[in-house]
Amino acid sequence: MIAENINDVKNFMSTLLIKDSFDEFLVTDVTIVTYNTFHIDGHINKEFYTNEEFEDINSPLLSSWAKLKPFCFDIIKGKKTPLYFKIIFSLPETMIENLLQDNDISLAKENIANLFLNIKYDKGVLSYTTGTSLNIFTLDKSLEKAFDSYISKFISTLS
Fold first, then answer.
1. Which helix (H) or strand (E) holds 89?
2. Three-point CA angle 146, 150, 153, nearest 5°
C-alpha cells in the first residue's frame, strides 16, 4: 500500500474528469460532497437490463469510469471546489492479467479479490492510496509491490 499527495490538483482533476486516462478503471464507490452529498455505488444492477443487454456489458459487476465520469463531472464542475470527494477504483481483469504477466507473478488470478486505487480530496488536499485484497493468505508481497509501482508510474505520467 502506498499513500501519496498529488501536488498539481488542477492538472490531475482535468485528467480525471476530462481526459480518458482513467476510463478503463472500474468504479466501486464515489462520494462527492458539495451543496449535498452525492453517493454512487458502482455495482451494476443486473435487474435493470435484459439478458442480451447484460451480456453486452464488459464488466458484469462494476461500471467503468468512462460511464460514470460525466455524472461526476456535472456534480463537481463550477466555481466552487467540492468540500470532499472520494473515488474508489478497481483494476479491471485485463489490467490485472497484464500486471501479473509483466511482473512474472505466479499468483493465480482467481486468488486476487481486487486491486484498488482510492482518490480522495479533503480540505484542499488531493491524495491517492492503493490497496490489495486477496482471497488467500500469503506472505508474498510481489503483487502488492508491482501494483504500487504500476500506480506510481501511472500517476507520474499524468502531470
1. strand 84-90
2. 140
CA atoms 112, 113, 117, 123: torsion sign: negative
Q: Which residue has the cell 455505488?
A: 41
pLDDT digits (tens, 9 = 90+) for 83-110: 999 999 999 999 999 999 999 998 988 9
DSSP string, 113-153: EEEEEEEEEETTEEEEEEEEEESS--S--HHHHHHHHHHHH
Q: Residue 32 has what DSSP assignment? A: E
Query: Three-state DSSP class for 26?
Result: strand
Ramachandran bin of 80, using left for φ above 0, alpha for ψ from -120 to 50, beta for the remaining angles: beta
Radius of gyration of the chain (CA): 16
At 15-26, the pLDDT tens digits run: 999 999 999 999
Q: How far apart are CA 122 and CA 125, in angstroms?
A: 5
Q: Give the SS3 label for residue 25.
A: coil
